[in-house]
Amino acid sequence: MGEFDLIARYFSQAGAKRADTQLGIGDDGAVLQVRDGYDLVITTDTMVCGTHFFADVDPRALGHKLVAVNVSDLAAMGAEPAWLSLALTLPEVNEDWLAEFAAGLHETADYYHCQLIGGDTTRGPLSLTMIAKGLVPHGKAITRSGAKVGDYIYVTGTLGDAALGLKLVQGQHQVSKKHQGHLLQRFHYPSARVALGQALRNLASSAMDISDGLAGDLPHILRRSGVGAFIDVNRIPMSQALKDSCDQAEALQLALSGGEDYELLFTVPESRRGALDVLLSPYGVPVTCIGRITGASGKLELKAGEQAISYQHTGFVHF
Which annotated residues bind Mg(2+) 2 (predicted)? Predict the structure, then answer.
């Protein structure tokens, strides 16, 4: 199968059909109609076999995850997902693998109302690069640089489940059968908090998604905003599956440094906390306040109640 046959068979119809896509796959470039009064948000993520996923991963899950982790970046900025581009490097053409990967990509893109509009295919070690584009009202993108002293720090959902799911896949941890499905779902099929991210446009002073662990990602906001923070580790939300499967120390380590959560981490000024509770209640996503922003520039303090604790972040780093 040639490159263009491969694209036509598996990717030419991927995702939702958007009215603002004037020209998609099949030409030298895509033509998109960007709405008046909106800014374009663009993010890129690469997944490499052996680094970000295992060679025997379910290709359908891989297609889902590739879309979801990119859309999660758009969600963290309050953007509406719109278009995707895919650069796919394959060691060989395996049609069964491609059919399942494309199905996972298609159904997830369709769920988030994204359209695959182009990309590239080439031969080489298996790697996947996706560029996601989204729209946000002009000047309303939520960035990492807006946190102010006194703001409250929040996270969505629960933390640490995906990291424990990874340990389960690797055979490094035993988990009771009743919790296995939940943990594997959180690892293989993350959910992007798109609707909630858009609801935060007029509430959050800063935001990002949690991909490398809370203790690794929060410092990005602190550096960009020129502030510090303290976190009460007793407030970090953990699922019953995590608490039942680990002792307290391991559960905390997974929640702080495990990564792969793709939950939203955001800050809110005190004056908007009441509005937050009212506005987010229809979304059905748990939101937990875990700390506050301080004036100690770049410094992240961890406390258990009133007692300071020492912790060294051990999350994943590429270099």
Answer: 45, 73
